Amino acid sequence: MPGTVDNNLNTVLQVHDMPVETFAALALAMGIPRASKAKIYESFRGGKALDAETAERLWKLWSRVEDLVHRAEPFPVSLRNATLIKNLLDAISRDGADPRVEFLPFNDGSK
Fold it and tell me: Mean pLDDT across the stretch 96-102?
């Protein structure tokens, strides 16, 4: 993972259209301290960088979110509601739920 975690997070959140507010709310809901919207914004703007432990935990959280996005392909996942994202991540880790979609061949009964 070249670059700093702060820069990488900033990039992936923008690419995936996930607001910092939502990511910070998700981090709080997942029990990650020192990851407020203000602290994340400050690190993205070149201010004080996130501490190493927080940055590592945020990157691991992002990896889980990214896995969710990839599992749901080709359908987009909205990354704008922290509560729904948390519920999906919890279901995947707790229950083994899988949001993948499987396409079945269409059989119209003609053959």
Answer: 67
Q: Are 40 and 24 in contact (CB under 8 A)?
A: yes
In this prediction the pTM is 0.83
For residue 35, the number of C-alpha atoms closer than 13 Å in the C-beta half-sphere is 27
Which residues 6+ apart lie within 8 Å of 68 measured at CB? Answer: 77, 85, 88, 89, 92, 99
Closest CA to 90 of 66, 64, 69: 64
Alpha helices in 16-81 (DSSP H): 20-29, 37-44, 52-72
Closest CA to 62 of 91, 89, 95, 96: 89
